[in-house]
Amino acid sequence: MAQKKYERIALDGIHTYSIATRDNKVNIRDHFARAPVAGMSFADFYDSLPRLLGADSLRGVVDAVVAAREKGRPVVLAMGGHVIKCGLQPVLKKLIEVGAITAVAMNGSVTIHDFEVSLVGATSEDVGAVLHSGDFGFSEETGGGMNQALADGLPKGYGFGEAIGRRIIEANHPFKDYSLLAACVEKGIPVTVHVAIGTDIIHQHPKMDGAVTGEMSYRDFRLLTSVVADLGDGGVWLNVGSAVLLPEVFLKALSIAQNLGHHVDNFSTANFDMTQHYRPLQNVVKRPTSGGGKGYTLTGHHEINIPLFAMAVLDRLAGKG
After folding, report:
1. Residue 1 — very low, low, confident or very high, per pLDDT cuts 50/70/90?
2. 163 near 150, Cβ under 8 Å?
3. pLDDT of residue 320 exceeding 70
4. In the list 123, 141, 199, 272, which could disulfide-bond 113, CB 3.0-4.6 Å?
5. How far, in Å, CA of 79 to CA of 12, rounded?
6. What average pLDDT does the segment 13-34 reach?
């Protein structure tokens, strides 16, 4: 068969239309930002952001949190370790103190960074510099102190988060005012820790007891599931910087709640992260809200997005008295 020969297509028969008849997704009246003005208030700055894409997602999450608190519904912060390493404890602690966040769920790395900050005012060792010497993760104060706190908390009926938070308070750590764990214990709100054994440096310590760690984290899973069961009709779940563990924990907790007949519907979720990953997108943003509710994604650096989010929430709450 001979190769077909193509000629350049003729364009003189194309039909056009007037732009005046076209529907547009963006227009200057409804969507454009307003020019910033030096010295403007935060409320004016926030209102000046474009009304589309990420800015509108931020507004949606802020609105959901404010509405949840007005209705007395839970607002849960689920977070990964990098959030702490961005120096955001004072920001998040403020949201806890004013009641904008009513429960906190963490992975194991969050507790380690929080504990170390409360103890010495610093955290995050240089892994590459000490890995080959065999020193990575072997701080005695961290591994010994946290594992002992868990062992001591076991017979008292504490979960993982409460045990570590109470130890920070009772031992009067010099920088305890920076601790989210301590803030949650002092506020009396649930603080739960969800551990994958082998992922955290305190699992390397001789005082590590798998039975204790597993039991304490399991207690926290059951407590968090009670919180998740109460999310319906206006609650909010915020996943910040956890790409795998907490989205999986959330999905299982939600499944248990639904199985027990709580029917958690019509609530909001949001995933804040530097890049969007499969599990947060599916297990936080999409699947849980598919039966009713709204899921949001906000992509960017925690050290910028979380203070912006927090300030918007605080400003709105203050405006409502």
Report:
1. confident
2. yes
3. no
4. 123
5. 59
6. 86
- Integer Cα distance of 193 and 224 in angstroms: 9
SS3 labels along the chain: CCCCCCCCCCCCCCCCCCHHHCCCCCCCCCCCCCCCCCCCCHHHHHHHCCCCHHHHHHHHHHHHHHHHHHHCCCEEEEECHHHHHCCCHHHHHHHHHCCCCCEEEEEHHHHHHHHHHHHHCCCCCCHHHHCCCCCCCCCHHHHHHHHHHHHHHCCCCCCHHHHHHHHHHHCCCCCHHHCHHHHHHHHCCCEEEECCCCCCHHHHCCCCCHHHHHHHHHHHHHHHHHHHCCCCCCCEEEEECCCCHHHHHHHHHHHHHHHCCCCCCCEEEEEEECCCCHHHHHHHHHHHHCCCEEEEEEECCHHHHHHHHHHHHHHHHHHCC
- Mean pLDDT score across all residues of the chain: 91
Residues 88, 93, 98, 100, CA torsion sign: positive
Note the Cα 214 to chain centre separation in Å. 23
* Res 132 pLDDT > 80: no
Burial (CB count within 10 angstroms: exposed 0-12, middle 13-18, buried 19+), residue 88: buried
Least confident of 24-38, 63-77, 179-193: 24-38
| Distances from the Cα of 282 to the Cα of 78, 82, 185, 235, angstroms | 16, 21, 31, 19
CA–CA separation, 140 and 116 (whole Å): 11
pLDDT at 266: 92
Q: What pTM was computed for the model?
A: 0.89
Distance of CA 265 to the CA centre of its chain: 20
